[in-house]
Amino acid sequence: MFNNAMGLILADNKKISLGELTGPRALSAVPFAGRYRIIDFMLSNMVNSGIKNVGVLTYNKYKSLMDHLGTGAAWSLDRKNDGLHILPPYVNSEVTNVNGDEELAGILDFLKTSRTTYVIVANSNVVLNTTFDDMIAAHEKSGADLTVMYNRDANKCGSPCYIIDCDENGFVKDMLYNPQKASSNKSSLGIICLRRDMLVDIISKQMSHGTSHFGIHSMVKMFDEIKVYAYEYAGTALRINNVQAYFKASMSLLDENVRDDLFWSGEPIYTKVKDEAPTLYIDGSSVNNTIVSDGCRIYGQIENSVIFRGVTVSKNTTIKNCVLMQDVHISENCHLENVILDKNSFVRPGVRLVGHSDYPVVIGKGAGI
Amino acid sequence: MSKTDVVAMILAGGQGARLGVLTKKVAKPAVPFGSRYRIIDFPLSNCVNSGIEIVGVLSQYQPLALNTYVGNGHPWDLDRNNAGAYILPPYQKSGKSDWYKGTANAIYQNKDFIDDNNPKYVVILSGDHIYKMDYADMLKSHIERGADATVAVYEVPWEEAPRFGILNTNEDDSIYEFEEKPKQPKSNLASMGVYIFTWDVLREALIADEADENSENDFGKNIIPMLLGGGKKLFAYRFAGYWKDVGTISSLWETNMDILDKPEDINLVDRSWKIFSRNPVKPSHFIGKDGSVKDSALTDGCRIHGEVVHSVLSESVIVEKGAFVKDCVLLPGVVVKEGAHIERCIVDFGTVIGKNVKAGPTIEGEGPYTNHKICSQGITVFERGLVIKDDVVIPGNSMIDSDVEVSDEDNVIASTFRV
Q1: So what's the ipTM on this one?
Q2: Mean pLDDT of A199-209
Q3: What's the distance, CA B179 to chain centroid?
Q4: Which of A175, A228, B239, B390 could form a disulfide with B355 if both were Cys (CB 3.0 to 4.6 A apart)?
């Protein structure tokens, strides 16, 4: 545990769309693993590392994210000093759209008010449970200016994919974006650490060069100017780059090793508490190989699925390989297979919906079938 | 009501000796209930849902777990700037200091706390009932009838009336007499242990009661009769919803089973009257390929690879492959090992049921742990933090207690650990 770093989470990603799932919300606010949102993992990782000051950078569709984060109390980030800071686009009435650098100006202000030595900056498309102590230690030992976390999933991460090439000392010598042919199996996890004063310098420089967008990989790409070290993460890291990847990541939670790595072997993952009742399994229900959250009423059959909070599955209904998000209601005599149902959607009696494991059917938030 | 009009006081200091080993280390209100709750969540949530924001929790017996659980009151929205949840243990005073001698004495010792908040009314609650009740409606009736005290009552079956404190009322529900466990009851209106007093009246009564050396300092036995004798206006407030005392092993077990058999009665899914609780911060529960769950209630962190039938499981319970659990109440962190077969068991925090253990009412006879004083209906209770030996057989009505002295041969406990 250290308290010499602050965190910055980029809550959305213009390169990533999960179709209907990111229609109403930022990527980081997409529900995941039964009772979480994607951002819960990175926020918890930071808090579990002893970080007490976290900025969440958003640019649009941030209502559901703000509802979720609230004061930050669920992550113990409701603090007098530091705590959780939501950084919406920085709009200055006098200079709006003059040079489009509102986003960067907002970050700069936030960075300048902190007193920590380091900053951890993270994207929102990776789910993992870790602390950053080892990464910071490796960063200090290497003498690098910036350290990027990677794993060896290059051949299976899908776009956007940043392949990194390192020299024999572990320093980045090349980075390729979605290459046709990968030159290494090292793929960035979109998490970096660097000195706070250096990040302030980089952003100031970017602003004076008229750059408006803040991106982790645009900084990793500076390996010609600064020393960029690559730090390997060997644990489970689920990339959520598109709907297929989201579905695959959800299904991978049914693997005990993945669940152990994400939930049981490390520090706890915090999320907003809903105070739902316990889940009741009633009458002839039958459930196998499935994750179920609180507040559900299960009367039907479920297999290989992820069930969020407050879901109802009625009698004579079978659910197979599905993701049913919060408050979904499935009526009687239905058959659903390879389907993702977003929050509050409902399925009327007798409906049969079958997707393919590579292309699940996605039903949008609040839709009725 | 304005939030400063009312202060609620929850009497949470009792031991609850009839719960046996379950209350060896924790006070009764901190005993887990209904998969994701503790008993005290019910009065605390009722207060908040009724709009009461100043809640004193009087703790005395084994207060550590209870104090930690209530904490700053955050899970119940009771972390307010000028209100909230306050843990009130007995404290040393210049002059005479004492433990809480009785329910009335506990309030008497905290009259400064109540005075500081300067309320018009005080709600007195006990921490050992499962019910959902709108105290604001009860207060409305108290004010409308110009009462000095209002006692919530519940109509119990006549044959059960002799077990309760009974209130005898006139036609307008004004109370003329209180009888503790009457042999020949004149009424079937049982006191629920929920009182609203006009504070000035109660304050005076508490001071007079304290001066009486013969008093047991109890609300039912002393304060109510004193007010009746003094010509004060006392009314009964009839409550018709679900209300269960969970003071005994059998009633605790039955009330847990009610969640499965009559979920509409307590209606925990009602989002307009949520029962709040402190969250354990665990992932959603998981039912494995070999797992099976029927007619049961589960919550976060459970991992089920065996068979669970008609049981209530608290957070992070593990049921291994080939284990069978029926009609059980498993409290947080319990592990049921491979091949174990348990029925009608209440297993406290973290206890590990060894491989192929058989326990339940289907096993006849009596053993060294048989305890008819605490256990009935074939229910077996396990203390917290035990590792039960593999292959042992335990008949129903047993209480597995590490303090019971048994021969090595009869001992079912392999080891104990702190939870």
Answers
A1: 0.91
A2: 88
A3: 23
A4: B390
The pTM of the full predicted model, rounded to 2 decimals, is 0.93
Cα–Cα distance for residue pair A12/A332, rounded to 1 Å: 37
What stretch of H or E contains A33? none
B168 touches chain A (CB under 8 A): no
CB contact under 8 A, B283 and A280: no
The predicted pLDDT at position A95 comes to: 47
User: How would you class B363 by CB atoms within 10 Å of its CB: exposed for 0-12, middle for 13-18, buried for 19 or more?
Assistant: middle
Using a CB–CB cutoff of 8 Å, tell me whether A275 touches chain B.
yes
Question: Rounded to the nearest 5 degrees, what angle is found at the Cα of B165, between the Cα atoms of B43 and B52?
Answer: 20
Range name among A40-49, A61-70, A130-139, B272-281 with the lowest pLDDT average: A61-70
Question: CA-nearest residue of chain A to B268?
Answer: A277
Q: Cβ contact (<8 Å) for B296 and A281?
A: yes
Contact across the interface for A275 and B293, Cβ inside 8 Å: no
Euclidean distance between CA atoms B284 and B300, whole angstroms: 5
Residues of B (216-235) whose Cβ lies below 8 Å from A: none
Confidence band for B63, pLDDT divided at 50, 70 and 90? confident
pLDDT of residue B107 exceeding 80, the answer is yes
- Give chain B as a 3 state SS string: CCHHHEEEEEECCCCCHHHHHHHCCCCHHHCEECCCEECCHHHHHHHHHCCCCEEEEECCCCHHHHHHHHCCCHHHCCCCCCCEEEEECCCCCCCCCCCCCCHHHHHHHCHHHHHHHCCCEEEEEECCEEECCCHHHHHHHHHHCCCCEEEEEEECCHHHHHHCEEEEECCCCEEEEEEECCCCCCCCEEEEEEEEEEHHHHHHHHHHHHHCCCCCCCHHHHHHHHHHHCCCCEEEEECCCCEEECCCHHHHHHHHHHHHHCHHHHCCCCCCCCCCCCCCCCCCEEECCCCEEECEEECCCCEECCEEECCEECCCCEECCCCEEECCEECCCCEECCCCEEECEEECCCCEECCCCEEECCCCCCCCCECCCCCCCCCEEECCCEEECCCCEEECCEEECCCCCCCCCCCCEEEECCC
> Is the Cβ–Cβ distance between B2 and B83 less than 8 Å?
no
Q: CA-based angle A52:A54:A56, to the nearest 5?
A: 165
For chain A, what's the residue count?
A: 369
User: What percentage of residues in chain A have a pLDDT greater than 90?
Assistant: 75
Is any Cβ of chain A less than 8 angstroms from the Cβ of B274? yes
Closest to B219 in 3D by CA, of B232, B205, B231: B205
Is the pLDDT reported for residue B249 higher than 80? yes
Mean pLDDT of chain A: 91
Which residues are registered as beta bridge partners of B175? B169
Torsional sign, CA B252, B258, B259, B260: positive
Q: Would you state the pLDDT for residue A90?
A: 54
Q: Quick one: tokens of A2? A: 């250290």
| Residue B32 sits at the chain A interface (C-beta within 8 Å) | no
The token pair at B279 is 């969250």
Amino acid at B20: G
Helix, coil or strand: residue A296: coil
Residues A295, B269: C-beta atoms closer than 8 Å: yes
CA A229, CA A30: separation in Å to the nearest integer? Answer: 31
pLDDT of residue B2: 52
Say if residue B350's pLDDT is above 80: yes
Tens digit of each residue's pLDDT (9 = 90 or more) over B48-60: 999 999 999 999 8
Res A93 pLDDT > 50: no
Interface of A with B in 297-316 (CB under 8 A): 297, 306-308
Query: Can you read off the two tokens belonging to residue A343?
Result: 């929050």
CA angle A143-A144-A145, nearest 5°?
125
